[in-house]
Design a protein that fits this description.
This protein is of the alpha+beta class. It has helices spanning about 5-15, 50-60, 70-75; strands at about 20-25, 30-35, 40-50.
């Protein structure tokens, strides 16, 4: 895969911006600009870093991509 010059510039700029890791009620993770209000339904987990640091941390903690409601339904046998 080849990365374009524009993509490299965007990645470099994103490394200079602080992001925070956010989670919603379905235990789905993402990252958001640290200095901006969080979108409705999302809360910060307290981790702040560059975009790549946030993505690495999310990869460590979000090991089951299924939404919480799906995991609960499977555990209870309700599908």
């Amino acid at each position: 895969m080849t990365i374009s010059r524009q993509q490299k510039t965007t990645q470099q700029r994103n490394e200079d911006i602080d992001f925070c890791i956010v989670v919603n009620a379905e235990e789905q993770y993402s990252f958001w600009f640290h200095d901006r209000p969080l979108p409705t339904g999302w809360e910060s987990i307290g981790f702040v870093g560059s975009q790549s640091e946030c993505l690495s941390e999310i990869e460590k903690i979000w090991t089951d991509m299924r939404p919480l409601s799906v995991r609960k339904a499977i555990q209870t046998g309700v599908t």
